């Protein structure tokens, strides 16, 4: 059985939701990112989440995990099966990891970018602007669609977008300026497996929606 290593406020939530909603048997193991991670580093030397233990070994990095799940469990429909559609999904996942996630990190953890405390406010302001631009792009990608890649069911990309909805709820940022994104959040909240995971981790999304 698969083992997913996660933290409730990290980007690992996307893989956790994908596994649960697709009904893929797995064990979810909490990693205390603020505590001693020496034991966990034996599994993932970087000490980050997500990581997933498979029969073939341990995979790290969100984009790689989603791509592997889609190929290992094609019946789940987590990403399109045609090569171009699959690449489009991976492209969106990579953009989220490389653009939206670092922008939000600037807001929450400016000290990671410089030790000069006098620069932190500017780093946060720039990060906030970049993050909201990312939300605008997400909203545009969802225009006229129930799910970001189209189709009749959510994909790995939709589950990963819930990470950003979760972070917005944590930061007190309402999704009203991005109605398509807000509607995606609400559609996913109606799915029992998604809601069950969010209840288990006491997600701030349940208080905002």
UniProtKB/TrEMBL annotation:
Source organism: Caldimonas thermodepolymerans
Mind telling me which PROSITE patterns this protein's record contains?
GST_CTER (PS50405), GST_NTER (PS50404)
Q: Which GO terms describe its molecular function?
A: transferase activity
- InterPro entries recorded: Glutathione-S-Trfase_C-like, Glutathione-S-Trfase_C_sf, Glutathione_S-Trfase, Glutathione_S-Trfase_N, Thioredoxin-like_sf
- Listed Gene3D superfamilies: 1.20.1050.10, Glutaredoxin
**Residue span, GST N-terminal domain:** 1-77
Origin, by domain of life?
Bacteria
**Keywords in UniProt for this one?**
Transferase
Q: Which Pfam families match?
A: GST_N_3
Residue ranges annotated for the GST C-terminal domain, each copy included? 82-205
Q: What is this protein called?
A: Glutathione S-transferase
State the SUPFAM superfamilies in the record.
Answer: GST C-terminal domain-like, Thioredoxin-like
């Amino acid at each position: 059985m698969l083992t997913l290593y996660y933290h409730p406020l990290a980007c690992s939530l996307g893989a956790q939701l994908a596994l649960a909603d697709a009904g893929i048997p797995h064990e979810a193991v909490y990693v205390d990112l603020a505590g001693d991670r020496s034991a966990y580093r034996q599994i993932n030397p970087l000490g980050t989440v997500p990581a997933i233990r498979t029969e073939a070994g341990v995979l790290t990095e969100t984009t790689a995990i989603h791509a592997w799940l889609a190929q290992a469990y094609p019946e789940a429909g987590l990403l399109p099966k045609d090569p171009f559609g699959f690449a489009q999904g991976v492209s969106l996942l990579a953009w989220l990891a490389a653009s939206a996630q670092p922008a939000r990190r600037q807001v929450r953890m400016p000290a990671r970018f410089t030790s000069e405390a006098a620069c932190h406010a500017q780093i946060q302001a720039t990060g906030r602007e970049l993050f909201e631009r990312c939300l605008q792009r997400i909203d545009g990608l969802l225009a006229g669609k129930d799910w970001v890649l189209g189709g009749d069911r959510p994909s790995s990309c939709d589950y990963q977008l819930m990470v950003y909805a979760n972070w917005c709820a944590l930061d007190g940022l309402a999704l009203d300026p991005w109605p398509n994104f807000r509607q995606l959040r609400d559609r996913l909240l109606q799915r029992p497996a998604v809601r069950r995971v969010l209840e288990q981790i006491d997600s701030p999304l349940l208080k905002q929606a």
